[in-house]
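Subject: sequence -> C-alpha cells, single chain

Hey, anyone have a minute? Need the predicted structure for the following. Not urgent.
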Amino acid sequence: MGFFCWPGLVWASGEKVDAIVIVADTRHLSGLMAWWGNLYNESHVYFMLLTIVLIPLIGVAFGLIADLIMGHMGIDLESRELAEH
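Reply:
Had a minute. Here:
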C-alpha cells in the first residue's frame, strides 16, 4: 500500500517533474525577520536546530517574566495554600 504513496511515482502530469521547493518570501522583510526567512531558505537544518533551541529558551524567559510580574502584583505561587477541603 505504501508503494502507491511514493511521491516519485506520481505521474499526474504525464512526464517526470522536479521536486517541489518551499521557500519563504523575504522580499519585503527587513532586520531580524529577513534574517530568519533567509536562514529558512538557505538551510532547513540550521533553521530547525535554531528553532529547537530558541523555543524552550523563550518559554523559560516568558515564564520568569510572568513570575516576576505576578510577584510584583502580590501573587505568590511558591507558598500557596490549597483552598480545597
